[in-house]
């Protein structure tokens, strides 16, 4: 076999492999384009509302929740994203939940849970936490 034939043979294999790879990838992109859209879950509060959550509310627990908690637990933020992955995305925003108990809220805030760090009494006082927990538990089991 001549040197030219050997060189051509050495180039043909990588070119053939590249062609097969491109053909396979193009088939994937066509299938991906045909795939139905993944559901995104319930609509979450827009960020422009998250920053003002609870401001002007006559309910002190709601105002405190907006000040201390909403940054992570309202709209599409760290707390709601993490809760949405572990639980039903419809229950990711804490202020919309109906299954929370005040004692549970307080325990999670003080001790942390999974990705949520514990918050000290300097960050959220006991009095503030009592009001926030009561607000979140307003629709929950007594």
UniProtKB/TrEMBL annotation:
Highest taxon listed in the record's lineage: Bacteria
Chain segments annotated as transmembrane: none
Q: Kindly indicate whether the keyword Lipid metabolism belongs to this entry.
A: no
Q: Which UniProt keywords apply?
A: Heme, Iron, Metal-binding, Signal
- Domain Cytochrome c residue range list: 56-140
Task: Enumerate the InterPro entries for this protein.
Answer: Cyt_c-like_dom, Cyt_c-like_dom_sf
Cleaved signal peptide residues: 1-17
Name by which UniProt lists this protein: Cytochrome c5
């Amino acid at each position: 076999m001549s040197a030219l034939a050997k060189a051509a043979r050495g180039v043909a294999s990588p070119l053939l492999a590249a062609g097969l790879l491109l053909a396979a990838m193009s088939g994937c992109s066509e299938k991906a384009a045909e795939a139905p859209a993944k559901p995104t879950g319930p609509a979450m509060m827009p960020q422009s509302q998250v920053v003002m959550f609870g401001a002007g509310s006559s309910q002190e627990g709601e105002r405190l929740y907006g000040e201390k908690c909403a940054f992570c637990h309202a709209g599409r933020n760290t707390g709601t994203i993490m809760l949405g992955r572990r639980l039903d995305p419809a229950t990711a925003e804490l202020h919309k939940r109906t299954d929370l108990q005040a004692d549970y809220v307080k325990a999670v805030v003080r001790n942390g849970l999974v990705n949520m760090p514990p918050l000290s009494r300097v960050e959220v006082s006991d009095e503030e936490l009592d009001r926030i927990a009561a607000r979140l538990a307003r629709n929950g089991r007594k």
